[in-house]
Amino acid sequence: MLKSQLIEKLAAENAHLRHEDVEKVINVILGEIGDALARGDRVELRGFGAFSVRKRDARKGRNPRTGEPVKVPAKAVPFFKAGKELRARVNGGSDPEAR
């Protein structure tokens, strides 16, 4: 689903809200998640999952075309871990990681 499709769906389900207002709300939510991750914070949405930032160490890579070694600098990457309820919904009602 694209962001525009999400906005359209929410606007259609909530006829009392203007399309522009729904778009602003979505943009604020996604912006705040992005800002929190940029600060290195963790964002947890109960029942959905958690967004966090993981550090990747610097390493030696390889140029696939020439085979030459290349230095790859350290970096931070966003990471998402699905929550238990989301995993269960995706798997038809049962959580494959449940013990």
Keyword list:
99 residues; single chain; two-stranded antiparallel ribbon; alpha+beta
The CA-CA distance between the termini, in Å, is 31 Å
Largest sheet: 3 strands, antiparallel
Structural class by helix and strand composition: alpha+beta
Strand order of the largest sheet: 1-2-5
Helix content: 25-40%
In angstroms, what is the radius of gyration? 19 Å
Q: Which spans have pLDDT < 50 for at least 5 consecutive residues?
A: none
Global geometry: extended
Number of helices: 3
- The number of distinct β-strands equals 5
Q: What is the H-and-E element order? A: HHEEEEEH
Mean pLDDT across the residues is 93
Strand content: 25-35%
Descriptive overview:
This protein starts with a helix and ends in a 9-residue tail after the last helix. The mean pLDDT is 93. Helices cover 38% and strands 27% of the residues. The protein has 99 residues and is α+β, with helices and mostly antiparallel strands.
Summarize it.
The protein is of the alpha+beta class.
Task: Show the helix and strand layout.
Blueprint: H1 3-13, H2 19-38, E1 43-45, E2 49-56, E3 59-62, E4 69-72, E5 75-82, H3 84-90
Antiparallel strand pairs: 1-2, 2-5, 3-4
Helix pairs in contact: 1-2
